[in-house]
Amino acid sequence: MSETTPSEYVTLVSNDGYEFKILRSAACIAGAIKKALDPLSGFRENAQSRVDLPTINGVILEKVCEYLYYNQKHVESKEVPDMDIPPELCLELLIAADYLDC
Amino acid sequence: MAAERSKKRKRDQDDAIAKIKKGKESKKTAAKKKKKKGGSDDGSDYEDMMDMYKKAKPLPGQRGSCELCSKAFTVTPYSKAGLDGGLLCTPCGKEIAKEVKATEKSNKPAVRRGRRKIESNRLDGFNFRGTKTLQQLCIEKLANHADDIDEFGDMPEPIMKRLSEIFSKKRATNSTTLKLFLQPDMRSFAVHEAAYLQTEDYNQIFAVIPNLKKLALRNCCQFKDVNIEYMIEKAKSIEAIQLLGANLVSNDKWIDLFVARGKDLKALKLEWLDAAFDDQAVEALTTFCPNLERLKLERCKLLGVDSVDAIARLENLKHLTLRFNVEIPRERIINLVRTIGCNLRTLCLENFLDNASDPTDELLDLIHTCCRHLQKLRFTENNECSDEGYVNLFKGWANPPLRYIDLNTTRDIDNGNPDGPEDFPIGLASEGFKALMAHSGRQLEYLDIASCRHISLDAFADTFDGKKQYPNLQEINLSFCPVVDTVIVAGIFRSCPKIKKVVTFGCFQVKDVVVPKGIVLIGAPRAHDALEQFGEVVMEFQKELRREMEKDMERITGRVVPVMS
C-alpha cells in the first residue's frame, strides 16, 4: 500500500482542457484509468489524483463520466435500463470506451 | 362509399356539437366575468376580454383569410383552426395536421418490448448484473442507426468484429451496411447472417480484401458459381472457408475451387447443402486438399458412404465434425477412425447409427486404442453402444483428460421399458459416467449428458458429493436425466468452483434450489417462480473465496469498493 491515503476524488482532463472531478471508485471502473491510478505502479497520476486523457475531447469525456457513475449506481441491480447515448457521439465514444477499457 | 358518407356525417355532427359546447363555454366565462366585475388584472381574464373584441370566425361558405399565410380562401367545414384560433387555408391546414400527427407519434410512450429479449438472454445463460459495458451500449446504438452511417473509419479489429456480429444478430447486414465492414487490410472476414446479401456483394468482399485468409458466411443463400470463380481469381491466400447454406454453388464449381486453392486450404466447413456437393466433390476435396486440418460437413444431403472413405485419406486432419443424413455402415466409420484417429484433436460424430447390424462397442474401443490427442469429443444420439463400452473407453485411456465432452442422447430406446435393460445398460449409464469423470474430471470445462437416462442417482451423488472437485467445469447439461434432484444440483455448486451454468430441463426432482451468486440454473420445471434462477445468495463456501479475493483486490488496487447492502 502507498503511504499517502488516496484522495476520494480524482480529476480527468480532456484534450481541450475540460476537467471532470469524479469519485475515485467510479473512475476506476475504467480499466485504463484504474491502471493509471494504481498505487503500486507509482505513476504521477496517482500522486496528483489527475489523469490526462489527450485522445478524448470534453464532450465525449463528459459522457464517459456519466457512464462511470451510471455503472457504479447500477452495479448491483438487475435489468438496468440502457443509458441514453446520442447517435452522433456513438463512434467517438466507442473508440474512447475501447481505449479506456470500460 | 357508404362508410365514407357516414364518417362525414359523423364528423359534421361532432363539429356541430363542438360548436355548441364552445358557445356555452363562452357564455359561461362571460357570466363569470360579469360576476367578477373587473377587480382583477390577471392574464386569463385579460385574454378572455380580448376574445370578446376578436372578430367572429367566418362560417363555412364565407371567405376568410388564412392565419398563417394571410391569403384569402373559402371556408369549408374541413378548414382547420390555427394555433391562435383563426382558420387556415387548405395547404396550411394540411401542413399543420402533419405536424400535429408527428408530435403525437413522438409523444406516445415507448412500448416496453424488452421483455422477450430479456427472457431470451436469460435462457442463453447471460447472467445479468449491473450495467452493460460502455462499448456494448455504443455498439447496440450503432446497430440501431445502421442506415445513417456512411463509414466507420479506422476501428480496432476486435470492435469491428463485434460490430459485425451484432449487425448480423439484428439482421442488419445488407448491401449498404456490408460496405462499412470491408477494409483492405483485413485477414479474416465473417458475416454470421448473410441472408440479405446479394451475389454482387460477395464479389465486393474479395475485391476489397485482397489478402483474405479466413472467410465465414452463414446463410449465404445468394452465394453462386460466379462468386466461387471470383474467389478463385482474387483471394489467392485463402486458407479457411466456412459456408452455411450455399446451395446455388454447383458440384463442378466446388471441385474447381478445390483444384485451384486446394494446396493452401487448411479449414473447410460446409453445412446445410441440399442441391449440390456430393461424394464426387468430397473425393476431389481429399485429392486436392492434402493439407486440410479442419473439416466439418454437417447436413449435406447428398453425402454418403463414399465420402466417409474419402475423408479417411486426409492424414493431416486434426479436427473432424460429421453429421450425415444417411445411415453409414459401422465398419466404414471404424475404418475412418482407425486411419486418421491418431492425429485428431476434435472428433464429433453426431447421429451415427447403424441399425442394420447388431450393436457393438467396437467404435468406442477403437477410439480408446487410436486416439491420443483428443480434447473435444462429441458422440451423440446413439442407442447401440453399451455402458460397458463407455467404461472401456475412459478407463486407462492414454489420451489426456478432455476439455469438452458431449454424449447427449446416448440411451436405450424402448417405450415398453424406459429404464433400459437392467443388467446390461445401453448408452452412457452409471459406470460409464463415473469412468468419464475419473478420466477427464480435472480438465473438463463443458459436459453435456442430456437424456442419458440410465445414470443412477448414486452415481450422481457419488460424483458430485461436494468434496470431490472439478476445478475447470463451467457448464453442465443434465436435462432429462430423471434422477437428478435438488441435492445433486447443490452438490454440483459445491464440487465445481468455476461453474456458471447448470441446465436441468425435465429434471422433475429439482425443487427450490438455493442458487449461489454468479451461477444460473436453467430449466428446473418445478421451480415456483421462474424457468431460470439467478444466484443471489452468497453461500458459506463462497464467502471464504470472496474474502480472499477482496483481500487480493485491496492489496493490488487500493480501490474503494462500493459496498451495497
UniProtKB/TrEMBL annotation, chain A:
Residues 9-72 form the SKP1 component POZ domain. The keyword Nucleus applies. GO terms for biological process: ubiquitin-dependent protein catabolic process. InterPro entries: ELC1, SKP1-like, SKP1/BTB/POZ_sf, Skp1_comp_POZ. Gene3D superfamilies: Potassium Channel Kv1.1, Chain A. It comes from the Eukaryota. GO terms for cellular component: nucleus. It is found in: Nucleus. Pfam families: Skp1_POZ (PF03931). Keywords: Nucleus. Essential component of the SCF (SKP1-CUL1-F-box protein) E3 ubiquitin ligase complexes, which mediate the ubiquitination and subsequent proteasomal degradation of target proteins. Controls sulfur metabolite repression, probably by mediating the inactivation or degradation of the metR transcription factor. Belongs to the SKP1 family. This is Elongin-C. It comes from Massariosphaeria phaeospora.
UniProtKB/TrEMBL annotation, chain B:
PANTHER family: PARTNER OF PAIRED, ISOFORM B-RELATED (PTHR13318), RNI-LIKE PROTEIN (PTHR13318:SF234). Pfam families: zf_Tbcl_Rhp7. SUPFAM superfamilies: RNI-like. The lineage of its organism: Eukaryota, Fungi, Dikarya, Ascomycota, Pezizomycotina. GO terms for biological process: SCF-dependent proteasomal ubiquitin-dependent protein catabolic process. Residues 1-47 are annotated as: Disordered. Residues 1-10, 19-37 have a biased composition (Basic residues). GO terms for cellular component: SCF ubiquitin ligase complex. This is DNA repair protein rhp7 treble clef domain-containing protein. Residues 60-97 form the DNA repair protein rhp7 treble clef domain.
